[in-house]
Amino acid sequence: MSGRIFNANTYGQYDFFNQCIELNVELFGMSESHAQKVIDTKNPYMLTGDDLQLYSTYLHELTHFYDCNSTIWGMEFILRIHRCFELPNSSQALEVVNVNDSEIAMHNYMYEERCGHKILEYDGIKYGLDYDEVVGPHLKICYLSYRSNFDEIIATVPVSMLALLEGHAYAQELLFKLEAYEHQSDLVSKSLLIKEVEKSLKYANTVEYTCLIALAFTLFPDLSLKNKLELIVTLSKLSLNASVIMTSRIPVELLEKVFQLSDKVLIQTLQTDWARGQNRAAFFILMLMYIAYLEDLGKLEPEENFIDLIEKYIFDLYSPGLNTEDIVNSMMTLWDVEYDAYLKELKSLNTRLTADTAHEMRDKNWYSFNLYCLKTPDIFCSSGSILSSENRLDIDLEEHFNQVAKPAIKLENQLKATGPYKFHNMTITWNK
Hints:
With 432 residues, the protein is α+β, with helices and mostly antiparallel strands. The protein contains 16 helices and 8 strands. A hairpin with a 6-residue loop joins β1 (12-14) and β2 (21-23). α3 runs parallel beside α14 (324-348).
């Protein structure tokens, strides 16, 4: 069953449309019974070898699952998908979900690698705001080489939702491995992991996983790998889970500073996207540049509660001079309203997998949670069998898959036939 859609060359994957996680235990060279023991372990930080790799892959895919089923962005996307399931011939429902899908698909549509090699021998990275008739305003990351011509662009990567989702999951995976090695006092493996990450940033065929980390390496050369990963995880969760009130009330002075070389009409159009809850990957870059600005001012000092420090600065941005706790409470009140509205709609559409997951995550911290205390979904093995954690969501995975498989495949084919297209409010007097 699951094997029909499984990619035999990957260790694991999450499907955006049928919402299922799959692990290819055969690639790890282990039996399903052993994989079950790894998933159920009470102390994952003591895992080693293939067991550690399997668990970190499991965590990577779970990150996708929670991002897509328990954040403001994710719940909106799932609702739009299920409206298409209920109204398979509605052009309006298809156009609406294409807004979300285009922000993911734009990576393959816009990624441009110019050096002709599998390795990006870049010397620097810069970002820029641009416009495309298909996807509208967007940010792009440019990999630069100074070896032949100064500022020669050897690759351009759109800051897509795929980059945000994969960057977040990859950062969670790496952070877990790093903390496991620290827990085991394994300095050799920790050092090798740091070198492996630095090497991976140059792989041309995986830039959707690494472009945000590569930018963080450029902006924060003095931060430890752990702090860089914590920063990416925190800002990813914030960007995916921020209420529309938060994404639409960005201080003008910050926009002017970050995009000081960009056309004002482009900036205004980007603001329109944010007011609709769209372009959250660009919101991530904006927050990252804000933190970089604070570091330039000497305010970003690595410390034990680094994540809490990042959160404090983010909320201070919205109401400078006020008590941070009051700002947080005000923002969370607005978030509660939006989250509960989506949760109510999910229940009305009988989307049990997402509704139960969103309910499970309702009162969890939006940038950190204890995976071992959560109810987690069942997952498919590449053989088609099912692995279940001891603390599982009470959802029959086979029944869920059988219900959504056909409409999910139909929707995917419709979106591929339509191609990426995102409605936007670009002023017609502006020319690229």
